Description:
alpha+beta; Double Stranded RNA Binding Domain; 2 domains; 4 helices; 37% helix; disordered C terminus
Amino acid sequence: MTRPAPTARAQRRAKLDTAVKASFDDSGGTPHTYASPRVWEDLVEDGWKVSVNTVAESMARQGLIGRSPKRKRRSLTRPDKAVDPIPDLVRRDFSTGPVDQRWCGDLTEIPTGEGKLRLAIVLDLGSRRLPGFAMSEHHDSVVARAALLMAAAIGGRRRDRGDLSL
């Protein structure tokens, strides 16, 4: 039993795969910079009428990797495996509620010309205001504690006075 002749589509795909491989190989040994958009530009210059996505599919089908995978970013937070984790009292529910009932925070590192600056904030989920913040050049735990202390001082003072305005 003989195999049927390849369809016009299959023949075009085979020619396209050959052209994509040739363009990729002609990149001069820089496959990490020769991704599908660059190969597509070469094919269009050569007279091909093809989309970028079709070129990307052809490259994937042939195992041609255009870009090296992004490197994994190193996280600043390194949990201590020996310590019990802090319970999630909010249970990942960040919906608004009464003022000064639910707080969440963030700690971020800001690169500057003089080094890294750490910023810790405390956000009141009920009012969306920032009752506490702190900045430091060192020690994430110290700056986080300072932001919490500021939030506790300001939040408590406003609640005692009955003044919940910004």
